[in-house]
Amino acid sequence: MNKKIGIILGIALLAFFVIGASSAGLFDFLGDEGAADNDDNTLVVGFDAEFPPYGYKDDSGEYVGFDLDLAQEVCDRNNWTLVKQPIDWDAKDAELDSGSIDCIWNGFTINGREDNYTWSEPYIDNKQVVVVKTDSGINSLADLEGKTVETQKDSSALAALEGDNKTLADTFADLTQVADYNTGFMDLESGACDAVAIDIGVAQYQISQKGSDQYKMLDEVISSEQYGVGFKKGNDELKDKVQATLDEMFEDGTVEEIAQKYDTYGVPGALITK
Description:
Elements: H1 2-21, H2 23-40, E1 42-47, E2 50-51, E3 55-57, E4 63-64, H3 66-78, E5 81-86, H4 92-98, E6 103-104, E7 118-119, E8 124-133, E9 148-152, H5 156-162, H6 166-169, E10 174-178, H7 181-190, E11 195-199, H8 200-210, E12 215-217, E13 223-227, E14 230-231, H9 236-251, H10 254-260, H11 267-270
Parallel strand pairs: 1-5, 1-6, 9-10, 9-11
Antiparallel strand pairs: 2-3, 3-4, 6-14, 7-14, 8-11, 8-12, 8-13
């Protein structure tokens, strides 16, 4: 009997040391279910942190914006935790494909990308415009002939100027891509470029910050498009949950209420009526 007890104790002790030596693997195994639960209750939103009014850093250092406010309300209603994940805009596909973010929610244009993502329904009608210095003498798109125009990499404005509006872009002296629109406006201020092609909401924000005595927006638009929430291709389950909550928010007036916070940037007027 003592021998049997000794064998049992020996096996138990061996198992203890084996498990201890591979505790990371054991905890990883046990944590798989926990990680899945965590994933189910966490929404990681990828966004450009320099794209007001949809996503940006305010004076207190907090990430805010119309789209982030929408995402927060969606999470609150589903008992999810929102993780605001700033990303390099030209690396957004890699972020989404790797699973480091769950969706791209940041003034994200559907047009021309319809087959690349699983999309929510569009919720914003947006326009691409041109901002110049008020005293530049540039008053129309035709006046951009021979000028240097900047826009963000992989932006809708760039897509328009390389696509349907290439004829216009061909009249420019140069169409330069920059990492973000803050850089574009610094270049505009310094004279390194003559104009910035940009989303209308961001243009209105910059003009409101700098003043209409410094910048103005041309009346003519480059193009129009619609914004949606982009999910990894095939992720219909998450898209459907988010869409159902957004539909509720449109119906009870919450989307309009949030949009009013960004009235200065023209967001309420750009909402698509549901």
